[in-house]
Amino acid sequence: MFRGRLPFSQIVFATLLGVAGGVYVFKPVFEPLAVRKTSEQQNQNVPEKQKETD
């Protein structure tokens, strides 16, 4: 099947390519969670304004 051994550089390249591809594919899964956390933090830092009626 394989005529020889794969060089270490090709194994490292394939590993990095696989990790980068996995991050690219699953990025939309984690993005909404990060956006939700930052919006919650912004809401906590802004004090609520009370309505003034004249």
UniProtKB/TrEMBL annotation:
The gene is pigbos1. This is Protein PIGBOS1. It comes from the Eukaryota. It comes from Cottoperca gobio. It holds the Pfam family PIGBOS1. InterPro entries: PIGBOS1 (IPR057394).
